[in-house]
Amino acid sequence: MSLESSVRDMLVAGSTISLVPDARVTLGFRLQDSVLPAITYEVRETQLETIGASPSRSATVEIRAIDETPLSVIAIAAQIRTACASGTYGGYVFSAVIDQGHALDAPAVGEGDEMQPAESVTTILIYYTE
User: Fold this and answer.
1) How far is CA 112 from CA 49, 109, 115, 116, in A?
2) 119 is in which domain, residue-wise?
């Protein structure tokens, strides 16, 4: 199993994110015409570090909550922060999961019927071992 799959497992573990069905938690992107709300995530960078006696790895992950209104995105983002927790997911042990902050983008209307939904981006730092 990959780190990306383990991050997805963390997000959907125990159904802590009740506002978004598991099938709408996707790696990288969502299709533009897909149903909202949705969550996408991306592992930005990984590096090898030595913490204590054993080597460990760290990864920066960006998680996006996407929906039509800022209020619903804020509610989803709160559930995401609760779901991001230490534990074992798909063979990876997440020894620490640190919230590094989040940002909110309001929806934007484009030309014609184009509309960009509201987004909240939560950035976390994961320390893990395989």
Assistant:
1) 50, 9, 9, 12
2) 3-129
Higher-confidence residue: 103 or 1?
A: 103
Q: What is the DSSP letter of 119?
A: E
Distance CA 56, CA 59 (A): 10
pLDDT digits (tens, 9 = 90+) for 21-74: 888 999 998 877 788 999 999 998 788 876 666 667 899 999 999 999 999 999
Neighbours of 79 (CB within 10 A): 17
Q: pTM of this prediction?
A: 0.88
Give the chain's domain count. 1
Residues with Cβ within 8 Å of 106's Cβ and at least 6 positions away in sequence, in order, are 70, 118
Q: Read off the CATH number of the domain in which 28 is found.
A: 3.30.2000.30
Task: Say which amino acid occupies 23.
Answer: A
